[in-house]
Every structure is written in C-alpha cells, then in structure tokens.
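[SOLVED] Need 3D model of a three-part complex

Original post:
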Amino acid sequence: MTESTYRIQGATGDWEVVIGLEVHAQVTSNSKLFSSSATAFGAEPNSQVSLIDAAMPGMLPVPNRECIRQAVRTGMAIEAQINKWSRFDRKNYFYADLPQGYQISQLYHPLVGEGSLTIEADEKAGIPADKVIGIERIHVEQDAGKLMHDQHPTMSYVDLNRSGVALMEIVSRPDMTSPAEAGAYVAKLRQILRYVGSCDGNMDQGSMRCDVNVSVRKPGEPFGTRTETKNVNSVRFVMQTIEHEASRQVDVLESGGKIVQETRLFDPTTGSTRSMRSKEDAHDYRYFPDPDLLPLELDDAFLEECRASLPELPDAKRARYVGELGLSAYNAAVLTADVETFAWFEALLAETASAQDKAPADVAKQAANWLISEFFGALNKLGKSLEDSPISHEQAAELLALVGKGTISGSIAKQVLETMFETGDNAGAIVEREGLKQESDTGAIEAKVDEILAANADKVAQYKDGKVALFGFFVGQTMKAMAGKGNPQVVNEILKAKLG
Amino acid sequence: MSVDTATVAKIASLARIKVSEAEIEAMVPELNGILAWVEQLGEVDTSQVEPMTAVIPNTLRLRDDVIDADPLTGGDKRDAVLANAPAAEHGFFGVPKVIE
Amino acid sequence: MTDLTELGVAQIRDGVAGGDFTAVELAEAFNANVAAAQEALNAFIIATPEKAVEAAAATDAKRARGEALGKMGGVPIGMKDLFATFDVQTTAASHMLEGFKPQYESTVSQKLWDAGAGMLGKLNLDQFAMGSSNETSYFGNVISPWKRSDGGNAALAPGGSSGGSSAALAARLCPAATGTDTGGSIRQPAAFTGTTGIKPTYGRCSRWGVVAFASSLDQAGPMARSVQDCAIMLEAMAGFDAKDSTSLDLPVPNWEAALSGDMKGKKVGIPKEYRVDGLDDDVAKSWDDGIAWLKDAGAEIVEISLPHTKYALPTYYIIAPAEASSNLARYDGVRYGLRDLPDGANLQDMYAATRAAGFGPEVKRRILIGTYVLSAGFYDAYYTQAQKVRALIAQDFAQAFEQCDVILAPTAPSAAFGLGENVDDPLKMYLNDVFAVPASLAGLPAMSVPAGLNREGLPLGLQVIGKAFDEQGVLNAGLALEQRAQFAAKPEKWW
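Solution:
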C-alpha cells in the first residue's frame, strides 16, 4: 500500500499526523431510543419531550427495535462483527443538556465490533491508493438536548427535543494520516449510511457530527498526545480542524511545550480550534451497566432480516456499473456517489432499456453519458438538484429513446430538454409540435447535398485536391440547410459517397 | 482502600454535592468505616464467577418504532414537562448561563 | 356497631359489596383516624381525604348501578410517598422534591385505583427509601404506635423505609398500604409493627413511576394486617408493564383463591447461617415457634445452607449506593424540584448547592459511597466483585431450593428500637437488614408475618422466602404461620 505523504513541515523537520474519528450519526427512526416521542427536526422547543426524556422521577427506558436494527444493518454494511449479546451502560456526568445525569450508552459490550471501510485513491487529493480504514466499534446511545445561550442576558435555555434521540457512535482506528483521508473517510461513511438508510447524513442539521482526534509525531516515533475536537459538522470543517490542530500541535511541541489531552471546539468562522472551558472537569464517567435494562440479546431471525434487507452497497454497485454495464470508472463513481443519483440513474436505465426494447447494458453508456454531461449540466444551470428536477425519469427515458431510435439528433435533444425544463411537456410532444423530427430519408438528404455541392463547386474542387478538412464544412452546410434535422449519420454517408 | 479528605472532596465534587471542610472531616472516618466493612467481599473467591446481569431470568424486549405509542411514554406534552420547572421560560428550561 | 377501622381489605371489600356499610362512611372513618393521629405519629406527609371519599363515592355509585366492584372496591389505602401520584405532591420524603406534583401516575398506584381503591394520603418514609427507621425523612420521624411494656414512654421506630406504611397500619389509620422493598423496606417495618407485608419476585410489580432508589433491587408490594389482605392487594398491584424493561411478562395468578395453610408435602428450609452468634433470645424463640407451627401445618423441616449469607449486606451496600448515586443524579434543580442558586453561581455551582440543600445526610452518604465505588480504578474491586458475589448469593438460594419449597427465617435481628438509638452509627443501622437483604439480592419473593411479642411487648416478625415466581408458596406458608401465631396484639391507643 502506498502511504500518504502528507507532512507538516516544522522547524525541526517533518511531522506525521495521526487521525482517528468518532462519528455520531443520528439513527433514522420515527421515535426516540428509549421513549416514543418523535425525532423530527425543527419542532417547537420541548414539544417532542416525553416524561422519560425529561428524566422525571420513576421514569424508565424501553429500547426501540428499529434503532437497534439500523445499527446492526450499519455494522453489516462495514462487514463488522455483530455482537448478539450486548449491554447498555450509564455514562455519568452532569450537564444541563443531560436530564438523567447520565447518558445511556455502551462501553463494555457494544452492539457492533470490528469492521472497516475503504477510501478510494484520489491522486489529486493526495490519496495515492485505495486505503482500508479500520472501524473499532459502533455503539448505540442517547443524544443530549440543546442549550441556547443567546436568548437571555443571564440564562441559557434548555430544549430537550433531541434528548434521547438514538445515535450510533462509529469509532475509527487511528488509521488516517492526512486531512484528505479523513475527509474521504467521512464522505464514504456518510455514503454507506445513506445507502443503508440508517442515517440521513444531513450534516448541517447535526444528523452527523464528528469528534476529531488528532496527534502529531516524528516519522517512526510512537503516537503523540491527542486532542479531541468535538462536534465538527462538515467534511470541509473536519479537514480544516485537522490542518489547524496539527500545525498548532507542531508549533507547541517545537517551541518546547507539551500537548495537553483535552477537548477542543472548532470555530468555523476562523477555521481554528480552542480549548473548551466547560468540559475541563476531570473526566470520571463511572460507567456501569444500566440496571433499568437487561442485556440486549439478538436472535438469528433478527440478524437474518437485517442482512436480507441490506441494499447493494457503494463498492459493489460501482464495480457492477463498470463490470456489467460497461461504464467508465469515472461515470460509475459519479453515479454511485449518492442514493438519489443512483436511484435516478437506475430508474432511467430501466425505462430507457424498455423504451428501446434493449438490454440495460446496451443503453447504459448512453444513459450514463447523457445523465452526467447533459442532464446534470442543465440542472446545474437552473441551480436545481435531482430531488427537485423539473422532469421525471420517465420523461427523460422518452427523450433518450427518441435519440436512440434516431428520431432526433443529440443536438436537437439538448434543445428539447431545455423546452422540457421550461414547460414540463413530454419530449415526443415537443418534437412533434416544433417539427424537430430528424430527417433520415436518403432521397431528401441527397437532394440537399446536391444543392450544397453545386453551390460550392470551388470548395468541392479543393476537397478533391486533398483539402479533406473541408468535409466538416459540407456537413455543416447540409445540416444548416436542413435546420439541424438531418440525420448526421446519413448526411455523412451520402457526402462521403458523393465526394468520392 | 481508605479515603482521605482530598478523596472525599473529589467524590463530593464528582457527585455535585457541596460540602464544607467540616463536613468532609466528619465524613472521612464514616466512609472509611463503611468501606472497610464492605471490603470483606475481597475474601470471596470469584475467579470462576460471572457478575450478575439480571436478577430474575428475563430478556430485554424491544418496542415498535411508533411515535407517541403510549401517551405516558410519548411527547407533545410540553406543559406537563415544564409544569414543575423552577424556571420555565418561553417553553424552555432556564439555567444559569453556560459558557462553552 | 363494629369499628370500621378495625376491618381489613377482604372484610371491607365484602362488606361494601354486601351493603353492610358504604364505602364513603368507611373512608370517612379512616380519614378521621388519619387526621387524629397525624400530630402524634406523623405517618403521612400529606393526607388526601377528598381523594378517599371521591373513590369511595364512585364505588358506592357503581354498586348502586349493580356493577361489579374491583378487587379493592371501596378499600381506602395509604400510598407510600415514593409512588408518583398525578398532581398530588410526591416527595420521596426529600426536601429535593418538596412541592413536586407529577403530571403522571405510577403504574402500581393506577392499577390500585382501577381496582377500586382510594387514597387516604401519601405516607412518610425514609428519604428516597434509604433507611431502616424512618429517621431520614425530611418531613420528620414517623413514631411507631407501639410502646414498650416497661412503662417507659420511649418513642420507637416503625422500621423503614416503609415506616409510614407500617405505623399507619398498626394504628388503624388504613387497612392496607403500599410499600417498596429494596433491602427489607417492606418486611422489616412490618415486623416492627406487628403487620404483614410481601415483597414479590423482582419484576412482578412495575417500577414505572416509582421514585428509583436501586433499580435492580427496588420492588413494590402490599402491606396489610393479614396474609389474605396482602394476597388481594398484590393481585391488584402486580402485572406486566411494557413501560418497565425489567417487568415480568407473566399472568397474575389468583393468589387469594389458592390460599391454603396446609403445608403437607412441603419442605421448609432453615438456613443455618442465619443462626448468628448473639442472636436475640426472643427472636430465636419466635423462629423456633415458627418451625413448630409449620411442622404442625404438615411441613417437613430441613436444614439448609446459604454459605454466602455473611456477604449479603456488604454486597448490598456496594450495589444499592452505586445504583442510587446514578439514579439520583437527575435531581439537579433544572427541570423540577428544589433549585438553590446562590448569587453569581454558575450551572455546576447550582447543582452542588441544590444537591447539598436538597438531600439529607444518609442520602448524601450513600451517593458518595456509590460514586466512590464506581469511580475510575475502583470499579472492578468493588462493583464487579459485588455483582459476582451477588451471583453466588443467588446461586446459594437456587441450590437450597433443590431441597426445600420455602425458607423460614426471622425478619429482623431485633424488635423495634428507640428513635435515635442507632442514628449515629450507620453500620449498626445497616445490620437491621441482615436477614432481609439476601432475598432482595436474589430477587426472590419474601414476606413477613407477625409471630408474637417479645418480652418487652413488642412485635416480632417471621420471614418466609420463596422461589422466584412462587408468591403462592410464600403466601401459603405465611398463612400457616398466621393461623397458628394467632397474633391479635395491637398498640394501645395513646395518640
């Protein structure tokens, strides 16, 4: 394996960076981990809070099957060991966003054990080869509530809507050595979570947050002391955190200081990190098994359902697009990047194939090329995403079929797509209405070719003298004369025949 | 193992219970008496014993993922949740300002 | 006319159903007793006479319409103030929760109201159920209605933590009361006051809405003045609750219908380790009486061994405080209960001040012990070791029950002691539960029935411990004892 060559150049030489990530991913579920209150984002403060979430005296937790199921499916997606026997532990600490005075989490016996994911080579980003990143564990735990500090001069306000929402904490090995690798890891993990459907991956809504552990060392030396920067909520910020934190640590070490193991906070406005005062307390979480809950024991039927309900995952899908559909590696990567994209592509592919009565593999390239170069481009121009595309994949398939059957040319198709975006009408209707059907009748084309050749006798002579580049001129003239509707293939063939 | 005043102060701080120095002084012998007594457990050979996990054999049930399945375990009851709050403000619980 | 307040659960249920008296007149009779005794005994934190009358009136109305009355139809009860009651102050006898009005009803209390019971008031207890004498309540000591026969006037402990329940029963302030038992808190107060109480198998009664002390030990149960009354009330309290993950998903047997004091074919185990050095003579004698009574009822007596008995109390005093230290972390002054916010205090200062002001000394002591045994570096030596020894204690019982059906032992090592006698020595106080704690650690059903009076004229209790889920076996052995003990003593009214 080719290692990353990312180094911090310090005054005393090069430093390596060691990165481990703890990703908190909100489990997609209707109700909370231990109560039946709702999890929806953006509700009125404290409106989605049960007596349990508010830790009223005598309240008790009962676990949500769906949250356990999604965590198990996620574990399976990273080929991790699933522990059929796990336990919930209490992590005890005092904070205003933690009503129970403890978080129900899993320390000693997590639900999911050792697994891994692969980040792909990206020369430009400084990832010379595919790299496997180890994942130590995934455990399930409660989210905390939210504090608001800017609503009152002397008080903070507590909203417990998030309190008790299920999180997966996904803990990586310290296997990453550059900001790019960490960024690729978060992106890949997000992709897998979204494929599996266990987390919506909405980082801006806090559905995925990263605790970034960074340390530096001279090559070959043991791990240095690490700091943990909490709640970083975008791929870009994760990379910035690492860049800033690594150089800060190098500066501290090179000026004779020591790195303190501490919790830090990332400030997106400055791109820097700072020590978190409120978490300075000596950590002694006094973990012990939650006596309100029994051990979590999963049977084979449960695990079987989890496995059977897993979708095709990104790596497998990409390989299939290349191997079975004959797409380029680039196109396969683009089309599998996100759930919406591949879903759109696969729907388009199925409809295109059936509209043209061909096997999917025979129209895959056409569909992929068109989707990536034409359709995405047109969407971009409108500033729209796939989800709010003005046309459906059925409509797009109809358009592609018109091209595939030779009814319209590729360039006319562009024009038709624009009209479709404007009007929402179907491609066939537009072609019909605007008379855009391609002329494939050899007689009609031959007549036009003859006219063009006659009108440009001088150029014909030059061509015959060897100035073959003029062929394009004749094609252009013919197409122009036919208002773009001549079948380019037929035009080419006839011109070739006539010009000898 | 026995505790001294510094340890008692640390435990009290972990437990978020404010104690005066006089209280700490009084607690040290008291806690040491109790700890010395419970430490007789150390003489039991438990090398072959698994710690108890469930006092009565029982399995953890998992509930269905249904919002507000039972009004007693569901949300949408802000008034009930805030009814006893020492400082309820605009639908929030108020606490002294926290600096993060 | 008979004094209505002498009646027990079965008699009231049958009397109301049969029209011998109305539920309302009975409730009013108990309300009067509650009010008259409050100053002297302090058994209730608050009385709710209107609730008792309201429920009674509903029962009378049902009867008038010819509808079936519930298992507890027309029976007014005392509710230990550890059970959350909707919009009625629920304190756990702590300053921390003074004024707290839950917007919910505990599962057990709801079941009792559904069965036709009414609430006379919220009973005093040891603060957060931590204590054996009811001297840790923020709302003052409960005074036992019993006095020593030496002519002295020493105020005696009603036992704890369900001391309000036991005192109220003995003083005829209620015919039945709820209790909770973490390490003897139903059985020891019952023994101290000549009343009867059963802690069922862990998980029989839902813990939902009961202020938690130690989750793996806490179990609610009935307290009354007869075995039959306990059986009736337990039927009303028990049952699966999907809101409690440790609740047992089992049908509730008809314990009352199957009551039988015939012990033929049953083996009763006598644990030799309970015959400790220096066992009180009167306690030893009452134990021997109990053995004779069960023999007389047809049982075979076998000696059994519970080798880890001496480790039960230390095990309990690691596990219970550890769980309590975490369970009581929610009392932080943010969402309910006391808030102490000194000038200029930040959030963490507020926590420390609130918890210093809200918790009593025994609660603080246990929180600190629990915090210590869970803290980094000590967890395995204390907590893990205690859970291992706890497994051995449970295993002792499992092996013993291969040789016997029920176990007979004293409930407590002595009769009631004077208030203040043990208060300065926590360890001495803890030893009160030496016979009660092992069954709690093993989650087993266990009950206390009155055996007789000691030489000072104070009640002594006998304890029956049964196999998991075998409340029937426990109740039946209890009934056999009750039938032979013929315990009829009651405290002379001085209040």
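Edit: The mean pLDDT of chain B is 95.
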